[in-house]
Amino acid sequence: MTTTPAPSRRMDARAPSTDPIIEMTDISISFPGVKALDSVSFRMFPGEVHSLMGENGAGKSTLIKALTGVYSIDSGTISLAGAPLSISGPAQAQAAGISTVYQEVNLLPNLSVAENIMLGREPRRLGAIDWRAMRARAAELLARLNLDIDPGSPLSSHSLAVQQLIAIARATGVDAKVLVLDEPTSSLDADEVSELFRVIRGLKDAGVAILFVSHFLDQVYEISDRLTVLRNGALVGEYLTREILRIELVHKMIGKELATLESLETKTRVAAVAEGEPTDTPYLRATGLGRTGSVEPTDLEIHQGEVVGLAGLLGSGRTEIARLITGADRADSGELHIRGEKKRLRTPRAALRDRIAYSSEDRKREGIVEELSVRDNIVLALQADRGWLRRISRRRQDELAQSYISALGIRPANPEALVRNLSGGNQQKVLLARWLAVAPRLLVLDEPTRGIDVGAKAEIQKLVSSLADEGMAVVFISAELEEVLRLSHRIAVMRDRRKVADLPNEDVTVGEIMALIASGADA
Amino acid sequence: MNPGTLRDLPKARLFWPIVTLAALLLLNVAVSPGFFQIQFQNGHLFGSLIDILRNGAPTLLVALGMTLVIATRGIDLSVGAVVAISGALACTIIADSPTPDDLGTVFFAVTVAVGFSLVLGAWNGLLVAVFGIQPIIATLILMTAGRGIAMLITEGQIITVSSAPYKVIGAGYWFGLPASIVIAAAMFVVAALLTRKTALGLLIESVGINPVASRLAGVRARGIVWTVYVFSAVCAAVAGLMISSNVTAADANSAGLWIEMDAILAVVIGGTSLAGGRYSLTGTLIGAFVIQTLTTTVYTVGIAPSITLVFKALVVIAVCLLQSPVLQQRMRARRRPPGSRPPASARSAKKSDSAKKGALVS
């Protein structure tokens, strides 16, 4: 393995006896104002699961897009099974046997499941699409994933999690030598993850090389054989999963001492527990608030200075109740009191007027405005609140943008960069900045740390707890129970569209919350 | 992006529209050397360039409104009909008045015509913003029905007016310049100030790029969309006044016919994407002049009337191709000597496109 430069001392003699199926050498890519990849080398062997690790902006997505033909590389070489490969587009990459499932589901919601799975390679008979064969083939692929989905149903009728599985079914349908899974598990629950892993192992046994990207360390350790770590667009090293300790791995990913992270965790936890029972009128009180087909009538109280964690599975009602208290959806039953005053929140705008901000779980569709700059995105909500006539002066905009960029560590630190060119974690920070700029009294964060690396996650958690210390009420929704437990003063558990428990976070364990999620209050 | 170097110049957003405009003007000079001459007679400016500005004024006005509509992901096909209605209303009022030469009469006629366009624009806005009808369908309704309304107003006749004050709008002079140029310039400045000195521009772009995210950020998307359709109708109404004033007649059938197509072309040539979002009023300005210069060129160069439309189409195709990100990428790739390391600036079509958009921010 002489072709790979060796930033890592461990690299030699680790390779299996076979030759790598993919070998990327000295890949460099830059965007306007950002050097996304700086001479990075990467290789994969047939029949292995290879995890790509790194913080936001480390260059993971860029490397994947270089491999799958979305970006053309500025310099460096790629070879497939020893032969040089020049990829000039996603179609060509796919034809060469490199298949991808992206972080954000890239399917067509208005087409059927079968059409989505078979798109671009529909079986034909006499020139026309053979619909029956297409449906049968799609059903077969779904069956391989053990999914009970009607291939004829429209894609939009399925949840994000199911759509993700359908995207994977689509990718496995191609005769793939290399399968790239970019954050495939970020919206899946535990059962769906183990289902996915079963399929991954099957593909691996069939000799497929799988590139796996996930921020869940547990999953990385469970499924992958080999790891490559990137940091700030540069290669840190390649390691065998069984030979690197988690603590070492995290250290390599974030490049700072772990002690800081650990002390933060204890500190927030202690602060969370030390906070006494709030006695004043709650900032927001929902009584029997519900919406048909979305969430059953629910009671919820949120006090100033309090972090309320919403735990539950996807579709349990945790996002749905958040949308009701923020005006994103209209409630059709129940009452809402804000500072003891009865209110009806018909629109997000009305909620913002009552200083309630909602950060949606769907960052791309309901969060960022891709083609606008970081500055525009940050001032958007504040400007909308002031109305179009009272424009925020350019100087004030620059001040706002600059102060949030440095406070939240947004990279690149350029207020004029287009948000679409930022990594997922930095986009999330821009969104947080947008909501913080309106100085909310109640901030509802739906999955703010999804698809974000360890470092940024810790920063956001720290921010949440300091905001609460300053008197802000926060609703924190996350699929990661550890995170909910670490941050919340109180935890509301949702199951089957209703609240099944509401308990102060005192000596509560993940196991107890899991039991509640699994079986309700009677557990 | 390094705007300082000549090499990057072709990537600037307005580079190709400006080059096209310059090329067309030079072609005219080559054929008729006196093309750039501007004379000053009786306190008025005369010349081919002034004619282009004056004749292009209605198209520019309509294209201004169209730019903002397109920025919200919409389109307004009804502008031609609004042109006809506005001209018909104003001319009918003046023709029916006992004192057509009275300034008050003309003022009243203009106010009614522009006022009614507010109603028409509000109707389009209602269909699009409140009832969620696709803009192309919603404005198609008024596009067809509007001609009918204009016919009702004129009772199927061509209404001719002889009113000196009214004639000023389309054929008169203010400050030595044709009044229509002054009016169009004023509207352009108003639109530019309205969108860039207030937050309207940001909110329009935000709604055009991502309506869902904008709603969650508290943007009143409905109000924004409504506003741009009303603005578009007002622009069309003023253009209608100009056109009818210039020919001192209101023709419900032919006034403003196909002007929506010219306006949409002007917007597209100016670099605003039909997909909505980022827009450029300056681009539209140049686009409108390209279209008008093209029409003038047909006459100066003496192209046979039978192939006029084909000639226009060829130029438009050329401009659109020059702006195509795919083609620009290919041309850059060819210019590069084979085997050399690709410069950082040559990347996929998608990215050079986004880089181009990034240039607008600065």
How would you characterize the overall build of this protein?
The complex is a heterodimer of chains A (523) and B (362). By secondary structure, chain A is α/β, with parallel strands linked by helices. Chain A folds into three domains: 1-96 and 215-255, P-loop containing nucleotide triphosphate hydrolases (Rossmann fold, 3-Layer(aba) Sandwich); 258-355 and 440-523, 3-Layer(aba) Sandwich (Rossmann fold), CATH 3.40.50.300; 365-439, no CATH class. Chain A has 18 helices and 22 strands. In chain A, helix 6 links the parallel strand 9 and strand 10. The radius of gyration of chain A is 24 Å and the shape is globular. The relative contact order of chain A is 0.11. Chain B has one domain: ABC transporter involved in vitamin B12 uptake, BtuC (Orthogonal Bundle), CATH 1.10.3470. Chain B has 15 helices and six strands. Chain B has helices spanning 15-31, 48-71, 79-96, 103-130, 135-154, 164-171, 179-196, 200-209, 211-216, 221-247, 259-269, 281-301, 308-323, 325-335, 349-361, and strands at residues 38-41, 44-47, 159-160, 173-174, 177-178, 249-250. Chain B has a two-stranded antiparallel sheet. In chain B, strand 1 (38-41) and strand 2 form a beta hairpin. Chain B is globular. Chain B starts with 14 loop residues before the first helix and ends with a helix.
